[in-house]
Structure formats: structure tokens, C-alpha cells
């Protein structure tokens, strides 16, 4: 039986993990490869690396990181963050990334999704969509770290991305991100029903029950979180044991 | 031990090279017929689209070489599907015809998304490739097309119906999942293959 996936997300800048990672027994919490290996051992199903480097060396440092991670890691991983061209995607895939996620570049030029899917196959093209809710317009897609409203409806954009050949949607609720009040069940459920590709829910995870809810009520295929894992608030194994008790298929 | 990885621009082979490296094994990425024929083991990984993969195999004459190989051979993911007779992908594409299956697409439903992406368990395991493994073991799949179950099937997975997770005919072994991305279980399968 296909299992629900648990995905820790690591923010990296200039090849180093950012956001205070507090992990006992990790000699260098800034080393993304060591952190990734630890998550893999604990039972993470996949990893996402979100690169926030903004220098001219961005591509070279990211390719080097991908190689280091792929050399060490025996579970799949996705790389995202400011990736905008076919040649960027090619360099990352050829060096060992399993999937590449695109966000602003796809919103600026949606045909990029078609081009990437045709060239590399849908299975490795993830479209990351950042949604924020307001009473007037409902759930809309934002860029620039949630500050710029594109005016696009979240469900419609995800459906378009899927039709253009995306293999997976990584849906982040900017309204929930950082709150620890749980995932956005309404928009996650709406997107999951609107597309026939897998949907990864992100933003708002604060408890084990939040994952149960996003799988049972919003039909997400995977749940992604960062700080609750990095700060050791929830262990991957105990989370999966909780999910299994709730009747959710997980890999243990 | 000489290991050849068939180079037909079939996507992410770096991960397979790294997986072998973790096992302390060096492999050569090559399309050279002599090197492939001489190798002790041949790996045939692949991702992406079947029609363009077949075009590249034909351009290199590999469609004639591969069926004649006699050493242990392991197809991975698209590399498994290419061993069949025919696929629905690309509007219908003729394949290498080493194994007698026809590759079809999963019907996408809200409950069963396509691609079939993630960790699924293996059932009905047969043969030396799966020594030491059980139906409790999970491996990582990413694919939209599948080979149905037949007499060549040596492992099944279910999504929502059973399909071929692994197949074998004589020296030709192949797996639909990614051994190189399936944690310790995948590593064990690669080790088992290297012992064949």
C-alpha cells in the first residue's frame, strides 16, 4: 500500500543550513548533508532543500550541495528556491537531485512547466505554490516570500500547473506558516480534489495530530515541516507511530 | 568486478553511481558495445520518456546489443519498462522486447494520483534479488506507467491493483522502483544483484 510521506524541509544559504537547528548530538548543525543523513536514519521519506542564496555563485553552490547530498543520501530529495531555467534544472538533476521545484519562474512564464516536463518528465518537476487567504478574494497565490499577490486563484493555478505537466504540487499556506496551528485543511483539500497528481501540504504543522488531520481530512499525499523537526519538538519516528495508530499507512 | 551502466542519456544516473560508490563498487557509464559486453554486470537505469529513450538506444545500436547480453543485467524504473514489448507512452512506442509485457498507464483518480509516487511495500517476492526481504519492506516508486503482473513477475506492489514491481527473464532482472533511493532495503537489493 502506498504510504503517506513525511518530509522535513531544510533551508540552505551558501551551502549551509539556516534557521537555528537544535539537534542534540549533531556536531555541525549547519551542515545540510549531516542533517539530511540524520533525518534519513530517523525515517524521513524524502527531503526538501530550499535554497535562499542570492549571490552570483548561487547555481554553483547549489549544484555542489546537490552532489554532496546525493553522494550521502539513499532517499529521494527535492531542490527548490529561485530556480528559473531549463539549464538550472538540468544541472541539478544531472548531479543527483530527484526532483526540482519551481515557483516564481513558473508564475512569470507558465510555459516553463510544459518545457521542463517535456524535457525531463513530469515525475521530477514539482510546482511550489504559496497561497494566502483573504476574505475578499479567498485563497490566492503569492510570490516574494508571501508579500506579492499575483491575483491568481490558488486552486486554478494548481490545476493549470498539473495540466501543463507538473508531477507534484508543493502547497504552502502562507496564512498558516509559522503559526503551529495546523495545516490549512480547506485549501489543501480543495487542491487535492482538483488535481490528480500528488499534493504535499506545507505550513502550520505544530503537532502530530496536525498531520493526521491533513492526511485524513484534506487528503494530502505528504506533509512537510521544518522547525518542529529541526527543534526536536516532534521526532519523525514518534510522528509515524502516531499516524499508524490513527490508521494512516506509513513506512516504519 | 567490472560494472557497466548503460549510457543512453536516460536521466539521473548519478544517484545510481553514488549508490554503487557507497557499496565500494566502481562502475563505468558507457555506450561502448565492447565495454558493455565484457562487463560482469550491467545496470540499465532510466527516467523520463520512453519514446525518446528508444530513439537514443537505436541511435547507439544498443537496441540490438542489449537483448544479446548474457551476464546479470538490472533494469531500473524506465530501464525496466524498456525491456517490454510495447508501451502506451508517447502515443504508442515499440520497446526492446526482451520480456513479454506491454506497458500501460495508471488511470488517474482523486484517490490514486498519478504519478504513483512514494514508498510502497513489495509482495509476492521470488528469487535471489529479494533474499532477506519481506512484504514489510518498503521501496520508493515514481512512475505513471506500469507492467502488468505475469509469469515473469518476481515482486508485486499494489496501486490500487497489483502490478509488476520487479520482473525477470533468464539473466535479465528489472525493478520498477528506485533501488538507489530506497534506503537500506534498496541497498540490500543492489547487493543481492551484485552477488548474482
Automatic annotation (TrEMBL), chain A:
GO BP annotations listed: L-histidine biosynthetic process
Keyword flag Cell inner membrane: no
The enzyme's E.C. designation: 4.3.2.10
SUPFAM superfamilies membership: Ribulose-phoshate binding barrel (SSF51366)
Record's signal peptide: none
Residues forming the catalytic site: 11, 130
Catalytic activity as recorded in UniProt: 5-[(5-phospho-1-deoxy-D-ribulos-1-ylimino)methylamino]-1-(5-phospho-beta-D-ribosyl)imidazole-4-carboxamide + L-glutamine = D-erythro-1-(imidazol-4-yl)glycerol 3-phosphate + 5-amino-1-(5-phospho-beta-D-ribosyl)imidazole-4-carboxamide + L-glutamate + H(+)
Pfam families: His_biosynth
Pathway it works in: Amino-acid biosynthesis; L-histidine biosynthesis; L-histidine from 5-phospho-alpha-D-ribose 1-diphosphate: step 5/9
Keywords: Amino-acid biosynthesis, Cytoplasm, Histidine biosynthesis, Lyase
UniProt GO MF annotations: imidazoleglycerol-phosphate synthase activity; lyase activity
Subcellular location: Cytoplasm
Leading EC class: lyase
Gene Ontology cellular component terms for the protein in this record: cytoplasm
Main location: cytoplasm
Family the UniProt entry places it in: Belongs to the HisA/HisF family.
Subunit composition and interactions: Heterodimer of HisH and HisF.
Xref: NCBIfam families: hisF (TIGR00735)
Function: IGPS catalyzes the conversion of PRFAR and glutamine to IGP, AICAR and glutamate. The HisF subunit catalyzes the cyclization activity that produces IGP and AICAR from PRFAR using the ammonia provided by the HisH subunit.
Protein name, per record: Imidazole glycerol phosphate synthase subunit HisF
Automatic annotation (TrEMBL), chain B:
Annotated compartments: Cytoplasm
Main location: cytoplasm
Swiss-Prot/TrEMBL keywords: Amino-acid biosynthesis, Cytoplasm, Glutamine amidotransferase, Histidine biosynthesis, Hydrolase, Lyase
A biological-process GO annotation: L-histidine biosynthetic process
Record GO terms (molecular function): glutaminase activity; imidazoleglycerol-phosphate synthase activity; lyase activity
Gene3D superfamilies per record: 3.40.50.880
Classification via CDD domains: GATase1_IGP_Synthase
Keyword Amino-acid biosynthesis included in the entry's annotation: yes
Highest taxon listed in the record's lineage: Bacteria
Active site per database record: 77, 178, 180
SUPFAM superfamilies: Class I glutamine amidotransferase-like
Protein species of origin: Hymenobacter rigui
Residue ranges occupied by any Glutamine amidotransferase domain in the UniProt entry: 5-194
Pathway: Amino-acid biosynthesis; L-histidine biosynthesis; L-histidine from 5-phospho-alpha-D-ribose 1-diphosphate: step 5/9
Subunit-level organization: Heterodimer of HisH and HisF.
Stated role: IGPS catalyzes the conversion of PRFAR and glutamine to IGP, AICAR and glutamate. The HisH subunit catalyzes the hydrolysis of glutamine to glutamate and ammonia as part of the synthesis of IGP and AICAR. The resulting ammonia molecule is channeled to the active site of HisF.
GO cellular component, one term: cytoplasm
Reaction equation(s) it catalyzes: 5-[(5-phospho-1-deoxy-D-ribulos-1-ylimino)methylamino]-1-(5-phospho-beta-D-ribosyl)imidazole-4-carboxamide + L-glutamine = D-erythro-1-(imidazol-4-yl)glycerol 3-phosphate + 5-amino-1-(5-phospho-beta-D-ribosyl)imidazole-4-carboxamide + L-glutamate + H(+); L-glutamine + H2O = L-glutamate + NH4(+)
EC code: 4.3.2.10, 3.5.1.2
Pfam families, sorted: GATase
Name of the protein described by the UniProt record: Imidazole glycerol phosphate synthase subunit HisH
Amino acid at each position: 500500500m502506498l504510504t503517506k510521506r513525511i518530509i522535513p524541509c531544510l533551508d540552505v544559504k551558501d551551502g549551509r543550513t539556516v534557521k537555528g537547528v537544535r539537534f542534540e548530538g549533531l556536531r555541525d548543525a549547519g551542515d545540510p548533508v549531516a542533517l539530511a543523513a540524520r533525518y534519513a536514519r530517523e525515517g524521513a521519506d524524502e527531503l526538501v532543500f530550499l535554497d535562499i542564496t542570492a549571490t552570483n555563485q548561487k547555481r554553483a553552490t547549489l549544484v555542489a550541495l546537490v552532489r554532496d547530498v546525493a553522494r550521502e543520501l539513499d532517499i529521494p530529495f527535492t531542490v527548490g528556491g529561485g530556480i528559473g531555467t531549463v539549464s538550472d534544472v538540468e544541472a541539478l538533476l544531472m548531479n543527483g537531485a530527484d526532483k526540482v521545484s519551481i515557483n516564481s519562474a513558473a508564475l512569470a512564464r507558465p510555459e516553463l512547466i510544459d518545457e521542463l516536463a517535456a524535457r525531463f518528465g513530469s515525475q521530477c518537476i514539482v510546482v511550489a505554490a504559496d497561497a494566502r487567504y483573504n476574505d475578499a478574494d479567498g485563497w490566492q497565490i503569492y510570490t516574494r516570500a508571501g508579500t506579492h499577490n499575483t491575483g491568481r486563484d490558488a486552486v486554478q493555478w494548481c490545476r493549470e500547473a498539473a495540466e501543463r505537466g507538473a508531477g507534484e504540487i508543493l502547497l504552502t499556506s502562507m496564512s498558516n506558516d509559522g503559526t503551529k496551528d495546523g495545516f490549512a485543511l480547506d485549501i489543501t483539500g480543495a487542491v487535492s480534489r482538483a488535481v490528480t497528481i500528488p499534493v504535499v501540504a506545507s505550513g502550520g504543522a505544530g503537532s502530530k495530530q496536525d498531520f493526521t488531520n491533513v492526511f485524513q481530512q484534506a487528503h494530502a499525499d505528504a506533509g512537510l515541516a521544518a522547525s518542529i523537526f529541526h527543534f526536536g519538538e516532534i521526532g519523525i519516528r514518534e510522528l509515524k507511530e502516531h499516524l499508524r495508530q490513527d490508521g494512516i499507512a506509513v513506512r516504519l | 568486478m567490472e560494472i557497466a551502466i548503460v549510457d543512453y542519456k536516460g536521466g539521473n544516473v548519478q544517484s545510481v553511481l553514488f549508490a554503487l560508490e557507497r557499496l565500494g563498487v566502481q562502475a563505468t557509464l558507457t555506450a561502448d558495445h565492447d565495454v558493455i559486453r565484457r562487463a560482469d554486470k550491467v545496470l540499465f537505469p532510466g527516467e523520463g520518456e520512453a519514446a525518446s529513450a528508444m530513439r537514443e538506444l537505436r541511435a547507439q545500436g544498443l537496441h540490438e546489443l542489449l537483448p544479446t547480453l548474457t551476464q546479470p543485467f538490472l533494469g531500473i524504473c524506465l530501464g525496466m519498462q524498456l525491456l517490454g514489448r510495447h508501451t502506451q507512452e508517447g502515443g504508442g512506442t515499440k520497446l526492446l522486447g526482451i520480456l513479454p509485457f506491454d506497458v500501460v498507464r495508471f488511470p488517474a483518480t482523486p484517490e490514486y494520483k498519478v504519478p504513483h509516487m512514494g514508498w510502497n511495500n513489495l509482495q509476492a517476492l521470488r528469487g535471489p534479488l529479494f533474499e532477506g526481504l519481506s512484504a514489510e519492506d518498503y521501496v520508493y516508486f515514481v512512475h505513471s506507467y506500469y507492467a502488468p503482473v505475469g509469469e515473469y513477475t518476481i515482486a508485486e506492489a499494489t496501486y490500487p491493483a497489483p502490478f509488476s514491481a520487479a520482473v525477470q527473464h533468464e539473466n535479465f532482472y528489472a525493478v520498477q522502483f528506485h533501488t538507489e533511493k530506497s534506503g537500506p532495503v534498496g541497498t540490500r537489493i543492489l547487493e543481492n544483484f551484485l552477488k548474482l
